[in-house]
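request received
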Amino acid sequence: MAATILVVEDEPAIQELISYNLKQAGHQALKADNAEQALNLVQSALPDLILLDWMLPGISGVEFARRLRSDKRTKTIPIIMLTARSEEQDKLTGLETGADDYITKPFSPRELNARVKAVLRRRAPQMTDDVVQVGGLKLDPASHRITGNGQPVDLGPTEFRLLHFLMTHPERVHSRTQLLDQVWGDHVFVEERTVDVHIRRLRKALEPTALDALIQTVRGTGYRLSPN
Amino acid sequence: MAATILVVEDEPAIQELISYNLKQAGHQALKADNAEQALNLVQSALPDLILLDWMLPGISGVEFARRLRSDKRTKTIPIIMLTARSEEQDKLTGLETGADDYITKPFSPRELNARVKAVLRRRAPQMTDDVVQVGGLKLDPASHRITGNGQPVDLGPTEFRLLHFLMTHPERVHSRTQLLDQVWGDHVFVEERTVDVHIRRLRKALEPTALDALIQTVRGTGYRLSPN
DNA sequence: CCCTCGTGTCACGGCACTGTAATAATCGTT
DNA sequence: AACGATTATTACAGTGCCGTGACACGAGGG
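response:
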């Protein structure tokens, strides 16, 4: 868990309710009353997920979602739409604009949490605290522990996040740029070559368990984690 | 267990039944016939949990819940709603106001106790009076006593709560923010680094028993309690 | 009134971590 | 085999995080 979630909702009571529940679930909640305010927030820091009311004063939720989807920087952010029951027929339209899921009001905190978790699991598995296991490697985000073939492995913060991301997206080549975006964050200015160094450090830390072979170099493209 | 529970219910028979059962289960029961009376009680002493009838004369249960949620001092108190079967369709609305759980009348004492226990455990496991034991450490909330490998350990109030929380959530990294929310309360404004100092004091107090090793630092993330 | 205890904040210092550059090694291509 | 391009590896200096001791403040109690 522990994702940053932006709540865009004009009704204060519901907004408060939602952020309260998110906080209880261990997330950090950003709040916005309307689309303009939300856009500003998104400028400065990208949230991991956006809860978006369908009906908003000024720019509507749909329109806001469309804009997010058209901007390269924000197009991959998962969106959950909030809609009133009476607008149920608009569900399809909502999903068409690229929402990942929708919730109809009134909803229970349990449902909210379940859907948030589900979407995060699908779109940003490295944000959840599910235990990940690949090959002989096991990583537990909650306890922040890693074992390779049963032996404990210890990593610095960056290597930890890097490995976590790779393990949640295995069998897939990631360019250095992608890794920088996903592991370092999108507002960071860092040389691409730096990724090499951290890959190196990660491999070195895994050497004692012979699991460094999981991290493969794809020349001209990037890196991949694979049990083969 | 041994929580202080406020029962807000206008029907005397049901109120009596509930408080009797709560007392049987070892809790202390406060009684209120209506929301106004309940608000007064809450002013003087915060209960650990509130059982709230949906239908109340005067201020309704929903409205009362909303007020509790809007006040900083009371927003974290768990609420269980009581509703008649016929009001079942309002469940969602009930949960929307931030209730933690829901019981439909008529209910069995067993169900009541189970839900109360579940909510208390979910919301604040460190609120219960169960003796906690991790590694060679034993903490007894009821007698407010701690022993490390048999030897008594004494702590200040804050260190006690901190240790209690850590022991009830072991094998898990907690950020300074999470610890502040959980141990200090989310209405307090305190520097994050203050957590370090209390961790230090806690470690120092545990040193004589060599159990200070249980409290581990996870650089860049927070602290963890673990028997390893 | 003073003393003690508990608490929160600060400042200093050490050290782990990070990013970069320089150099060595490797790969693919001709 | 040789060359350019790409990646591996190492070293190093700067940075930021954390541990630690000191201190001020306030609440209670003697």
